[in-house]
Each structure stands twice: as structure tokens, then as C-alpha cells.
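Need C-alpha cells for this chain, all 550 residues.
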Amino acid sequence: MTDTTLAFTGARLLDETVAALSDRAPAILAAAADQLRGIRLGLHFNDGSQATLTARHSRIVVDQDRCPDPDVEVAFDDRAMNLLFDLQRAPVDQVLPDSLDVRGSRDDSLAVWRAFTLLSQRAAGLRSMQELWGTYREQAPQLWGATVPATGEPPADLVDWTALDFLARRTPDDAPAPLALIGGTTIEAPRLLWDGRTSTDWSLEYTVRDADLMETMHRCRARTNEEIERLLPDREPRAELYDLMRSYPARQGKGLRPTLTIAACAALGGRPDDAVRAAAALELFHNGFLVHDDIADESTHRRGLPTMHEEHGLGLAVNVGDGLNLLAVDAVLSNLESLGLARTLGLIHEAVHMCRESIEGQAMELGWIRHDTVPEADASYFTMSTKKTGWYTCMSPCRIGAVCAGVTDPSVLGRFDEAFRLIGIAFQIQDDILNLVGDEALYGKEPLGDLLEGKRTVMLIHLFRTAQPYERPRLLDVLCRRRTDKTQQHAEELLGAMRRHGSIEYATDLADRLAAEGIARFEEDLQVIPENEGKAVLRQIAHYVTSRPL
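Here are the C-alpha cells for all 550 residues:
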């Protein structure tokens, strides 16, 4: 392939594959990154494009440029690209003469091979990957050889794309029926398709598939939103209360809390539908907290739109937040009829505990701002973050989902705590980083809003801990100004100081380390839960924290 005008180059295909997997199946990406750790991989494609592949913690980073000094160098031609997803071929058959060229040490080359095997074997089961690779192939179908005729023998020189063709022909009737709400996950131990002597045709056996996390969260969020709509009263005063109560839940978030709640219920043997109302209650609590948080923080935007108090005034906003919290309490109590007394009492206990932790964390943060203090140690931030957001974002959804499945034993519920405490802190640090360096359209808040609001983030704590004594008075003066007295230039000044002192890099590494510790605790503490569809979704969410781009 020498036509460089093609819209879809090999390097771009690789970049988009990794980007899609970071959202849809981060556990796959983490497994491949583990194989590539410490290896700089240079890739050359026969369309003239090049790329560099490196692993950073549990992420894979693609740079569509030449790698000047790679540890392993791989060159693909058309036939090698064609065989990439053809898993019924033995490795020796895929290394064609004058087709696939690999240079590097034996150990590094084998590690690269294992990484690509993981990506091809597991990612091929995701419909989104099939569509992406199909788009690449279909831009120039003549490059992939003759078409299999409807009747008769295929031509001798046929170069087919066996895996994609098989999956493209599959109908929903061929696939195993997914669990309601969760969907997209079938747990099978990865098979060794080549044992050195014989190969197994993967397309004729039960397919190895991973959860498509994006699709799963979309389904859980949509089902929860339907339940919220049923819970909201259809009566007056609409314009000043009930229509406004629909506003924040309608601003689409990731769907993390509903997915955790429903998946935890399924993981412990419950029916996913039994967790939907509890998931809706969690979302109502969450959105009530957000309305009040935005008032306390003097925020101007939430999920890309004006905050409630900016658009409708303080009085209505306070009342809407109160209404959302009251409706959440009513939603928890309404489980009495469907889940019974014991589980409903368990849900009440978990919800009250979650709310208490959240308001204690909010009080800690507001206290730092009120008294113009910056904590000296990261541990103070960890405590505040766990209380303010960790409980209602990660830990409580898992525990509440488990209660919906009938689990009320504190020792079992507690098995979620440490793993998701660490994952929750990592997730919050990443959100704080995104507020500084992320895409506003994706993040949904005003740029540098945390600096304008005076949030005590890990980056700010690190800055004040490492800044020179002569710098601190000016930094503190800028930080402690009222929100209305700060300008974008003040926020840029603090951001510039963070960049000089390496505070953002420090926070990124800290989040990666905490997330990795959380994943290790997940595997250790949740061994008591058998491998099933719900647990697989929980695992994907745990890995999502380590793989999402910053």
C-alpha cells in the first residue's frame, strides 16, 4: 500500500484502537500495558505512516511519529495487517517472508508479541472494535484479496480476514443472552489458541469477550434515568421545583454510580432490576449534593451548562437541592415493597452513612478555605476526598448494590471498602488534574475552576510543600482571595507555579500508584465473589481509573 492519501492509515488505526479500548475495555489495555512495560516500540506501516507505542503505568500511549531509538521495531505490510486478527493461524504462519519484520532483543520482542496477542484475542470480541477495523478495511477492499464466492471453492490466492468476517456475519441470535441491564460481558478464561504444536480455531468455539464498559454504563445510566423520571412527581409547582429537579440528572454524566450499584448486585447473585431504584436514589442524592456544592463553591458551570444558582438564583437552587435529597430518601424507602424489610433497612443504613461521610468531607474542605490553610500532608486530602466523594461515588454504590442482592453481613460489605477507597481517591485526583489540563468540552466545568474556587487539591498541597519560602506569601495571597475577586490571570499564576514545581506530574504519578494498589486489593479482597458478569464489570471500572487519558 503506497497511497498516502488514504483517510485511515495504520498509525491512525492503532491510535483509535487504543483510545477506544481506554473507554470501552480498559482491563484489556491494562493487560497489554503490563507486557509492554519499559519497552519503546517503533511501528512502521506500508502506507508510510509510523507510530511509537509505550506503556505508562496501566495506559498505552500512542504517538503518531517515528520512534528515534526503539527497543523493538516492527514493520507491517498489507498481508501482516490482514492476519493481525486472524487468530486461527499459528504464530510461525503469521511471520510471512518479506511481510512482517521484527527487530529487537528476544525478550522484548516476545513481550511485544504477547501484548498484541492480548489486544487481538480479547478486543476482537467487542462489536466497536469490529466496526473500527471494518472501516479501515473497507476504505480499500481490493487490498485484502479476492472475495469469497457465494458458491464454489475460494480462489487459491484468497487473502481473507477470517475473524472479522465471522463476527460480521454473527447475528444477535448467535450470541449468548446477556444479563438484563449489564450486557456485553461473557466470562471465559482466555484460551491458549496455540500451544506450540496445534492451533484452535477460535471462531468455532465459545467466544472470549470482555465488557464494553462504555456501552454498559450507557445502558445502566439510561435505565436509572427512566426510574428517576418515574419517581419525579408530575404536579405543581413544575416551573419552580419539579422541572428544575430534572435539570441536573438530565445532564448526562458517566453513569459510574448506577453501573457500580447494578453490577455489584449482579456480582453477588442478585437480579440487576432489584438495584435500579437504589441506583436512582443514589443519583438523586448525588445531584442534590451537586446543587448545594455549586452554591458553596460559587461555581458558574456544571457539565457544560450554567449552575442552578447562576441560572435560577440562590433561593430556588437551595430548594431544588433539598427536594432532590428528599426524593432520594423516599426512593430508598420505596424499596420496602419489592425488596422487603431487611434489605430496605440495610439500604437506609448505607444511605445515612454515605450522607454523613459526604457532609463531613465537605465541612473539612470548607474549613480549610474559611481558615486560609493548606494541609501539609497528602493524607489529609485522602481523608477529605474519601469522605466527600469517595463514599457516594465508589464505596457506597458497591455496598448498596450488594444489599440489594441480599447481603447485609458487614464483613462482606467491607470487602469493597479498601479497594474502592483507593480507586475513588485516584479517580478524584484525576478529575482535579483534568480541571487544570483537560478539555473543557469533555470535562464540563469552567477551565481552572478549582483554582478560582480555592480547592485544596493534591497539586496545591504539593505546591505549597515544595515552593520556596519567598514564593509562599504571594501564592497564599492569590489562593485566599474571594472567588469574586479572582481573575483568570490569578488562576494561571497558580497553574504556572504548579508546572514549575512539578505538582501536576507528582499528582499523576500518585493517582496511578493509588489506582494500581486499588486494583491489587480488588483482586485480593473480592476473591470470595465468583467470576461472573457483574464482577467483570466492577473490574473494568477499577481498570478504567488507570487507563483513562490525562
